[in-house]
Amino acid sequence: MNDVAPVARHYGIDWLRIGAFGLLIIYHVAMVFAPWPWVVKWPETFPSLIVPMALLTPWRIPLLFVVAGFATRRLIARMPSIGAFAHQRSVRLLVPLAFAMLVLLPPELWVRARLAGDADSLARFWLNDYWRPWAQNGRGFPQWEHMWFVVYLWAYTMVLALLLARVGAGRIQAWFEWLAVGRRIIWAPMLALAGAKVALMFVVPETQGLTTDWSGHAGYLPLFLFGFALGGSPALWRAVRQHWVGALVIAGLCSLVVVGVELQYQGADVPGHALMAANRAARRAMAWGVIIALLRLADGMLNRDHPLRRPLAEAVFPAYLIHHPVLVVLAWVIPSWGMSAGEGFVFLLSVTAAACVACYVIGRDIPWLRPLIGLAPATPRPARRLA
């Protein structure tokens, strides 16, 4: 049986999730113009983006895993068993993943192939080259591109289900409520996350991959489990309220290291091992400090409902699915239209956002499309009583 106690909805966490995904879309649009490598680049890049992007990069994905863990706590509390939870989450995550890989990602990967010199049409690429398991133009099927987050989330959810079946929710709770004593919620996670990163960074590659990204898993999985524990722990919430200022101060100090390294080492310049390790450690510590401060913001100022919250929260998954392929294809096409960089940024952001809205608004009213874009099956509306 499922021993996870019911959890009330926390509106502030919903707003954090909505805001984090909104920032993700802006971040990806900005990557078209930023100096760092990305899928498609504007003919001109802008070093002025280094500072704001460096301040955003360390914590945006870690925050999403904390929020996902928190939401998972509420989901599992409504399930009759751990097995039912694992099945439901697999359907909700893997069906949209398959839909994205079969339908949404091929145009994006075709753009990558064209940029690598492949002259095939989209139709030929989609029907032939896309399915080849060996590497071609640096890519081989399967490729999940931005959907890596969904793959990792599914894997962490299965790990959580296994832990719940083996040790129970109470034991997992105790692992993290240790942080509620003194100032442990500040320094202990910072040391653990930074230490794990430094210990692995020269041993395993820093590349995404479910079976290769051990450095990423060492940071993301504990954050996911922390979010799960936070969902049922008044003690952890008290610690957040008491120590968020200290956490944010340390995050600010770490940000000086992060920004300084990014400004000093641009393009092909690479810092030495010691400075690289310090930079990676500062990123992890900064991420934790910002997350604690944002959790306090969510609990203290954002924990209230609004008519837009529910549709925006529901639209997050469809928007995540569609935004990346639309952005990549558009960013590849429009530089030849003669736009300035500012016009290009506004156009890319506006059309990508419009595509996200359209995906949700259209998909929510088509029953067979709902599960493909990550929406729950529609609940039948009660019949209207005739007067």
List the main descriptive attributes of the protein structure presented here.
387 residues; mainly alpha; 12 helices; disordered C terminus
Description:
It is globular and about 60 Å long. The protein has 12 helices and no strands. 67% of the residues lie in helices and 0% in strands. With 387 residues, the protein is mainly α.
Structure at a glance:
The protein is mainly α. Helices cover 67% and strands 0% of the residues.
Order of helices and strands: HHHHHHHHHHHH
Q: Any idea what the radius of gyration is?
A: 22 Å
- Nearest-integer average pLDDT: 91
**What share of residues is helical?**
55-70%
Ordered list of secondary-structure elements with their pairings:
Layout: H1 11-31, H2 50-77, H3 82-115, H4 122-127, H5 148-166, H6 168-177, H7 184-201, H8 214-230, H9 234-264, H10 273-300, H11 309-333, H12 341-363
Helix pairs in contact: 1-2, 1-10, 1-11, 1-12, 2-8, 2-9, 2-10, 3-5, 3-11, 5-8, 6-8, 7-8, 7-10, 9-10, 11-12
